[in-house]
Amino acid sequence: MMAKKYIVGLTGGIASGKTTVANLFAQYGIDLVDADVIAREVVSIGSDGLNAIKQHFGQGILLADNSLDRAALRAKVFNNPEQRLWLNNLLHPMIRHRMLDQVQASTSAYVIMVVPLLFENHLDSLVDTTLVVDIAPELQVSRTMQRDGVSKEQVEHILASQMTREQRLALADNIIDNQGEHEQLRSQVFRLHQQYLQQATDLETNVND
Fold it and tell me: In the chain, how many domains are there?
């Protein structure tokens, strides 16, 4: 029987600081399972995911080096719900399967699963507790514009496609406020790390009883 791992689902809107928070947990020796990294792996050169996409959309979906042309794929699915559904039905099970494999391979006391669309894609069903990194929408806009060199309109379009701040906070078990100084962020992470260590221990005790 597979050992039950205590899983924390870490999420937040665009430019909320999910990676920064995840890396602070990693400094305590906690393993990270990153959905974005896995999403890139399942469509890497030679992967089953990329081969299926090529068969479905044609050779034009590839760059000169045979890697995925992400811009071309985005253009194919952007205003086409049917094609987006096809793509999601292909990739989501692959990503989910690989995430769970990585969780099982983890050796840390608990695991942080970093998933930008945790609630939207119903992946919160895989975790024991949810942690939302929260910042104000106007801060999301300014940080994303600065980080990605995109227009305000583009950022607002992305925000509109995601769950609202209020919806996300309503679903959160724990919340980190990432609008202050780095030291405040670090202390919030430390407090939650202690909490998750205890919850992981409690889970192990209950499983073994």
Answer: 1
pLDDT in tens, the chain (209 residues): 346 899 999 999 999 999 999 999 999 999 999 999 999 999 999 999 999 999 999 999 999 999 999 989 988 887 888 999 999 999 999 999 999 999 999 999 999 999 999 998 889 999 999 999 999 999 999 999 999 888 898 888 888 878 899 999 999 999 999 999 999 999 999 999 999 999 999 988 887 66
Which residues participate in the annotated binding site?
Answer: 15-20
Q: 67 lies in a domain?
A: no
β-pair type (31-34, 7-12): unpaired
Pick out the residues of the known binding site for ATP: 15-20
pTM score of the predicted model:
0.88
The answer as to whether 124 is a domain residue is yes
